[in-house]
Each structure stands twice: as C-alpha cells, then as structure tokens.
Design brief:
Length: 275
C-alpha cells in the first residue's frame, strides 16, 4: 500500500518537476516514514529541508519551508497540477517589481495566484497597490497566510513606532480558492505567478484572464517567476513579453534556499495596448 502510494506520488513529481526532484521526494518521503515509525510527530509544513528565512525572524511570520504539491491534497481536480509551496526570495521579488510600470503599482490590484503562506502578499503590501489579494488552494497554507498578514501588519507598525499608519501598507486579503476558478476583479491588474501550477491549470487561468480583459479592456501585467511554462504566456494573444532576466538572489535568500539554485528565471508580460 505504502509502495503503491509512493510510486503514484513519484510519477506525479516526474510529470510536474522532472526526475531529479522526484528522486529527492522519494527520499524525503522515506525519511518521513522512518521518523513516523520512530513515533515522532510528522507535519509536512515542519519537516521540510529548507532553513528559516531571515525575513521570518525579522517580522515574526512563518513563510519558510518547502512542501511538495503531492503533499497538498484538497480534493480539487487541480490537485495533480500543484507544483509545491516555496516562498519567493524577497530580493528576487523586489528586483522584478522594479520592472512593473509605476502607473500600475499605484492603481492595480496585485493578485498572487498560489500565494501559499503569503510571503509575496506581505512583500507586495509595501507597494502602493489599491489591493493585494492572495489566492491559495491548500487550507493548511491559507490558515498560515491569514495569520501572517496579521502578524506582519502588527510587526511593521511596531517597527515604525507609530509613524506607520495601517493605511501605509496596501490592504491585504487571502482567499481559500482554486486559482482555476478565480474571477479577476475590475480595474488594472498585476497578476503574479511563482510557478504555482502546471499547464492544465495555467492555461485555464490564462483563458479566464483573457476573457476578463476582453469584457473590460484595461491595463494588466503578468509576472511569471521560475517560468518553466512561459510558452503558454508567449502564446496568449493579449500579452506581450516586456522584460525577462535571470535574477541572482542576495545572501539572505541564498542562505535560506536549500533547493539548490541561487537564481530565478523571471519574466514580465504586459497587455498589448500598453506597449
Ligand atoms: C511556489 S508556491 C508560491 C508561493 C508564493 N506565491 C510566493 O511567491 O511566495 C505555489 C503555491 O501555489 C499553490 N497552488 C497550486 N495550485 C493552486 C491552485 N490551483 N489554486 C490556488 N493555489 C494553488 C500551492 O499550494 C503553493 O502554495
């Protein structure tokens, strides 16, 4: 029974991430099972092989760790296409945000599809967005993200010793929802994707976004980090790539990142009428 379940999980990992990650997962699952056998409590959000990021220590939040998609079952048809939870390196996030037109930063709703524990939501609240929205499918991560929003707001206000009003951070909210069914709000958009799901869900999201922009033509940007499936965005008739680069992480991001790479492939797309 265990062998059959592990084989199924490894097969899904190969489809979503390739062989190297699948082998690592098989090893992790075996280690996890051995730990369980020695009666230690096991929780996929705590056994993970990455270090706590300095960002978490600074603001008293919990956004670190790696949880593979196979360990985030919710019963949704989108489950098999969940890549993993892993928080974006803040240095990479701010580098990419510097490429987003200032007019969008001032007026848009920032939407993180697949927000996990909400690290990018917290980082985006430092920009003058009209609204920052996270959408997460996994209830255990959504719960942590909601808690993180409260903790981060309190920590930022304490840090500024009363000089920071709640209104200096963009308003944040985190929804428990499948991104494949998400309806985009009215007004300008910055849609943010940190390779959250594989092609079937990504294509559905892009179709929904295209439909929304056809119904209400408006300025929008799509940020895609770790852009393994960027051909899907290249083919979207309403988008045009505006920028792309391999971004090097700073030291604090590298120290927390045990997955192996110190760089992220990033791209920014804008709706065609903006170019
Ligand atoms: C790589 S993490 C990105 C975390 C966050 N966006 C950040 O940048 O720090 C991807 C997240 O997408 C979520 N996810 C995957 N499929 C999803 C779906 N169909 N709907 C909503 N969330 C999904 C996963 O559960 C995971 O938390």
């Amino acid at each position: 029974m265990y062998a059959r379940r592990t084989a199924r999980a490894v097969r899904q990992m190969v489809v979503n991430h390739g062989w190297a990650a699948a082998m690592r997962t098989a090893g992790d699952r075996l280690r996890q099972r051995l730990r369980r056998a020695s009666s230690q409590p096991s929780d996929p959000t705590t056994w993970l092989p990455t270090a706590e990021h300095a960002f978490d220590r600074q603001y008293g939040v919990d956004t670190s760790g790696l949880v593979w998609g196979v360990d985030l079952k919710t019963g949704s048809p989108s489950d098999p296409w969940n890549t993993a939870y892993y928080g974006i390196g803040p240095s990479v996030f701010h580098h990419v945000m510097a490429q987003v037109p200032a007019s969008l930063q001032r007026t848009a709703t920032f939407i993180d599809l697949g927000c996990g524990k909400g690290r990018a939501v917290l980082l985006a609240s430092e920009y003058p967005f009209a609204q920052v929205t996270g959408v997460e499918i996994a209830p255990q991560l959504h719960r942590i993200a909601v808690e993180n929003v409260a903790r981060y707001t309190a920590a930022r206000m304490a840090e500024e010793r009363g000089h920071l009003a709640r209104t200096d951070l963009a308003p944040m909210r985190v929804l428990l929802e499948d991104a494949a069914n998400y309806r985009f709000p009215s007004g300008p958009l910055v849609v943010y994707l940190y390779h959250p799901f594989c092609r079937p869900v990504l294509e559905k999201v892009l179709r929904n976004l295209g439909r929304s922009l056809a119904e209400e033509p408006r300025d929008a940007a799509v940020i895609y980090i770790n852009h393994e499936l960027r051909d899907a965005l290249d083919r979207a008739p309403y988008l045009q790539q505006a920028w792309s680069a391999t971004v090097e992480m700073d030291v604090s991001d590298r120290l927390a990142d045990r997955i192996g790479s110190s760089m992220e492939d990033c791209a920014l797309y804008l709706t065609r009428q903006q170019n």
